Amino acid sequence: MTRIIIIAAASLLAGCGTLDRVMENRVACSLDRSQGAFISWYGPLGISAKIAEADAEAMCKVTPVILQVAPRTGTGT
After folding, report:
1. Separation of alpha carbons 63 and 20, rounded Å
2. What is the pLDDT of residues 31-53, one digit of tens each?
3. What is the 3-state secondary structure of 2-69?
4. For the whole prediction, is pTM greater than 0.70?
């Protein structure tokens, strides 16, 4: 019985690298960008862990982006 449990657990944990988009690992930032988390998704179930404060600061830091939009050309107006 113990061998079956070990094989089942190993199969589930190995699935993160073999099942595309079903079992995956993601990182996320809180909305105020003050905290970060590492999330392992097993289908619809996610198990998360907090990221160290220094790592979250580096990962979630907001860098302002300036976008310049050029006018359309060739539209006939």
Report:
1. 31
2. 888 889 999 888 888 899 999 98
3. HHHHHHHHHHHHHHHHHCCCCEEEEEEECCCCCCEEEEEEECCEEEEEECCHHHHHHHHCCCCCCCCC
4. no
